[in-house]
Amino acid sequence: MIRETLFVVLCTVIHNVTCLNSFLYMNIFNSGFHREVHYTLKFGGIGRMSCELMLLQQFPAAMYVDTDQLTNLKKFKKINSYVPLYVDVEKPASKASPFSLYLFDTVRREVNITLPIHFRYHDPSERKFERVQIESPTLFVQCRGPNTKTLLKSTGIVRYPCQSSAQIYDYDKLGEAEYCDWQEVEFSNVPTVISVLIPVGNSASYKFVLPATILVSWIGSMYLIYIIIKSGKRINKKLL
What we know:
- The chain is α+β, with helices and mostly antiparallel strands.
- It is built from 3 helices and 12 strands; from the N terminus they run αββββαββββββββα.
- The strands form 3 sheets. A 6-stranded antiparallel β-sheet has the order 5-6-3-9-11-10, with no helix packed on it. A 4-stranded antiparallel β-sheet has the order 1-2-7-4. Strands 8-12 form a two-stranded antiparallel ribbon.
């Protein structure tokens, strides 16, 4: 907190203008294949500026978000997100591809965003776990008001989906999102990269698991057929 305050004071003294500085803190909660990433953003030097923010989060193939789940969260105003493609939640990590997700909010002293994430199953291997890394997102802002062009550590203007794209719910219309100018802003701190260990099936057990699975499936199927036939005969007797 002291560092953030000194940073704002120095920025104001040196430049004599309003400077926007940002700090990102990431945490992951829960365990297993279904977890939550919590983003905490702290801003200083906002002054009289009115700004919207966008976090661009890149996800590896080993992870996915459930777009239906995000749609429900958006309806309850718990998140404001846009995924520019349909996410197949059934694909294993070996057949999936990396993708991007956009998170929108309004710049204020502190912004908290909770994003549900899920991990895909990996192909069996000799390792017991696979390490999956979640890189820190990139921050972009749109500002109005005095001195809006003087944003600390700004690296330029880029065009990305507007905030209105978060209101697109139809998969067939995902590509119709409008694009706006966003100003990229570097974080004043160095965000931590999150690393997660995901359990992986043991390939050495394949010779045992496959025959056992087939055998159990056949036994279960034959038992169901027996019960259906027996029940059918009993019902026919009652009808007669």
